[in-house]
Amino acid sequence: MYFQINKNIERYVSFNLDELKIFNSLLEYSVVPKKTILLHEGEICKFEAFVIKGCVRKYYIDTNGLEVILQFAIENAWISDISFSIYEKNPSRVYIETLEDCQLFLFNPESKEELFSKAPKFERAFRILMQRSLAATQDRLFNTISKTATEKYVEFLEQYPALPQRVVQHYIASYLGISPEFLSKIRKKMAK
Amino acid sequence: MYFQINKNIERYVSFNLDELKIFNSLLEYSVVPKKTILLHEGEICKFEAFVIKGCVRKYYIDTNGLEVILQFAIENAWISDISFSIYEKNPSRVYIETLEDCQLFLFNPESKEELFSKAPKFERAFRILMQRSLAATQDRLFNTISKTATEKYVEFLEQYPALPQRVVQHYIASYLGISPEFLSKIRKKMAK
DNA sequence: TTTATTTCTTGTCCTAGTTCAATGCAATTG
DNA sequence: CAATTGCATTGAACTAGGACAAGAAATAAA
């Protein structure tokens, strides 16, 4: 049960069995049906979620009432609104919602503090996780500014080859920052 | 000399005098003339820079050879390509360049490790700094996707009211992800 | 299996923003 | 101070992508 998350956390820092045991004891296992909103706009995000099985999206609603998807998280990915919420205690501007029935590990700030005090090496692992998420966001900004809609879609397919079979198409358009109609037209053109 | 950086690092975590002394002893003070490239694409970024005085930009060159500015840093801001370079030892895709004569503190990864081992509380402060930079990047992504060019420019003016007097206008266009001509037209319309 | 609901596609028209000159202006440089 | 270079402005023509509407397909519900 803990195999996936331990493998994930050990990607950049190694831990011994005792350390992993502490880590695992602080995780909350949770089964969540699809279309459950884990975080509403205006709430304070009190968790970081690791996806064991399923698919989750993070999105905000823009000034025109349009949903914009910031992140998809599938198996072995972390998702949270850490940047705004956790340490600064600001209400979040985003929603986090399951798209499929999910098995998750939830990790809350108190547990995180406890982990860091009992096994400080985890500070480093979580700092690296955050750096990776910063890198991913910067990369996405890069693409959003510099690439055409078609290029963005092609890159998306490379990065998430399994997602088109798992989520509806207009969510992908929303992630890419283009209209669903235009994505449809891109696909038509690419099919040739 | 250390007043500004100490005030900055204490924004979210407080330190005693001994801790600050250790921190300050590990910083490298550096005076850099304008138009100096501190980091080239392809290099590994071996510093985090804190701006005491001056103005710095971080940018990449897109596939059409066009410069896109990711960040401006003025007094009391940090700038680095931490996300890609420092811990993962990947070559950077960005350039970091001074736009004015600058006074900087440079902080390198070895010093950072030393700091963390001598005064572990700094781990937390730097984790929060990184979260803030993640939040800022996410915010920028948000704006880039959801706002019109005019809205982006107005927000930019609110966030960096002093910058238009300090950097050439097409750099601002490059930051906003629009063409310099269009920014000029926006300004004309706004002047009315 | 029939109905209802959601999603995807396609076409037409429209607009925000780009590209490409051309011109004037400010700022360096010799 | 003249000359060169870089920068901002303006206009005209163009294009990527959006908005709207209507139909077709697929999914879910009953």
UniProtKB/TrEMBL annotation, chains A, B:
It comes from the Bacteria. Residues 32-117 form the Cyclic nucleotide-binding domain. The keyword Membrane does not apply. Keywords: Kinase, Transferase. The keyword Nucleus does not apply. Gene3D superfamilies: Jelly Rolls. One of its GO terms (molecular function) is kinase activity. This is cAMP-binding domain of CRP or a regulatory subunit of cAMP-dependent protein kinases. Transmembrane segments: none annotated.
